[in-house]
Amino acid sequence: MSNSATTKTAISPRREDDFPEWYQQVIRAAELAEPSDVRGCMVIRPWGYGVWENMQRQLDAMFRATGHRNAYFPLFIPLSYFAKEAEHVEGFAKECAVVTHSRLEADADGKLRPASALTEPLVVRPTSETIIGASYAKWVQSYRDLPILINQWANVVRWEMRPRLFLRTTEFLWQEGHTVHETEAEARAEAKLILDLYERFACEHLAVPVFTGEKSESERFPGAVQTLSIEAMVQDRKAIQAGTSHFLGQNFARASGIQFQNREGKQEFGWTTSWGVSARLVGTVVMMHGDDDGIILPPRIAPTQIVILPVTPREEARAAVLEACDKLAEQLREARYVDLPIEVEIDRREIGGGAKNWEWIKKGVPLRVEIGPRDLEENSVELSRRDQPVKQKQSMLMKEFVARAPEILRSIQQNLYDRAKQFADANTRVIGSKEGFYDFFTPKNTAKPEIHGGFALAHWSGSRKVEEQIKNDLKVTIRVIPLGDSEPGRCIFTGEPSPCQVVWAKAY
RNA sequence: CGGGCUGUGGCUCAGCUUGGUAGAGCGCCUGGUUCGGGACCAGGAGGCCGUGGGUUCAAAUCCCACCAGCCCGACCA
Asked: Is nucleic acid strand B under 7 Å from A8's C-beta?
């Protein structure tokens, strides 16, 4: 019997009925974020920001460990700087916010109007290659000044047409690394190092398995020589680009005048890279792990990993229950999960126990712990794992729970990853013919056009024309060209020789 | 930026065709009964009906413009 048809879920619609709407409802129900009155911009609420802060903290440690240091560069980029790299301009010109005035004045009707035009308009950074390049040009004189390994945590603005909470907003939070190297090989190695770092972060911290590789020319960052990317498959089987790392060659060095005297005493342009991930990762986690009752946060990035819910059916038991909660919280905070104290919160609010429980379910807290009078008598607690069905509860001795909490969190983290990996594997196919390819990406149910095959691995000769044709016909693009060993074959569309299979999918 | 749909208390929406002083459910507040599960009963607060203009004695309702949101395209982290 299909229980799911009758069971009430916290989020409606369900994923299978309307995935985009489900996504929005989850974000609202979990109090991650909400749309603001400013077109295309969002308010990130404490719960959502807490997730981002955890991602930030953990990535930051990884950057530091690989020799990078943080710095901060201006939000405003003089138009003339921005104009230096031709492809870069072409790529970003259509989505730039531009500051042209420096003052407001009241007109005759008392309405405020911009006044005092700037001599040179300022572009609000859509990315910072050019403004950072201007500084690097001053800092770099000799090969002894290299490498420069800097990261910046910042907001950027891209005037997008269709905003979506976390996935595509006009202003967004991200991290952008910008490095300069003495040789091409070093710069290429840096881009690859960061790609691997992003992959590790996605898998181990976000429980998000990814496909990695190089972008085709048409999907490359404007001005880059090579763009590397990690791509995840979310639950509607679409791909989401979760992080990119670019080898920029000498293009931006040339544009910004980043030159140094090399070991032979000759002037040479530096070799640069840039790389970034954004708060889009929060949206990725929602679409990756969420269910019809809300989000499910991987323990490593959950702002609260364990919530303690006092059960106080009788007023006279209240004090004793709360005391036991405090004691448990204290003990749990002394335990370590991935080398950090466990984040514990006691929810003392006096609202109905059921309602309270559901709030935390929707917010995706990995582990809920109930303590009531009966538990006090038996020195036990009732556990509910967010990665298991809502009604499923497990009783455990308090002492045992304290000892096992880190292990349980690890198990949840692992389970989320395994599930996601299994889903991605189950919906990834090697495809050997054009017909098979078109069939794979053609929706079987016209009422739900978003449901299609998933990811396809297929040979492609490198023809841009084929790429365009597929995009026009099916809205399917090459997500990545895998790096490393590959079996040559024949392009399934043209029969031409192909060096390797590439990953195809519909994308966010 | 093009095409379609939609803007009415915090949320979901009814009312609009046939103009006549603003409604429901959920949520919120108060009191009570409950309490190992999103409880129940009673009372209450909350809305220049997206904005501006027009038609009219009278506009949530009709007309025009604008703005915003969603879905579909082009673009993107």
From this structure: yes
**Are the C-beta atoms of A159 and A120 separated by less than 8 Å?**
no
Does ipTM come in above 0.90?
A: no
Integer distance in angstroms from CA A164 to C1' B63? 34
CA gap A191, A184 in Å, rounded: 11
The pTM assigned to this predicted structure is 0.94
Q: For domain A428-505, give the CATH superfamily.
A: C-terminal domain of ProRS (3.30.110.30)
pLDDT confidence of residue A110:
64
What does the CA dihedral A60, A65, A68, A70 come to, rounded to 10 degrees? 30
Q: Which fold has domain A19-98+125-289?
A: BirA Bifunctional Protein; domain 2 (3.30.930)
CATH number for the domain running over A306-408: 3.40.50.800
The string of pLDDT tens digits covering residues A259-277 is 999 999 999 999 999 999 9
Q: Which nucleotides of B are covered by protein (CB under 7 A)?
A: 1, 28, 34-39, 67-77
Strand B contacted by A18 CB (< 7 A):
no
Residue A152 to residue A155: CA distance in whole angstroms: 10
pLDDT of amino acid A451: 54
Question: So where are chain A's domains?
Answer: 19-98+125-289, 306-408, 428-505
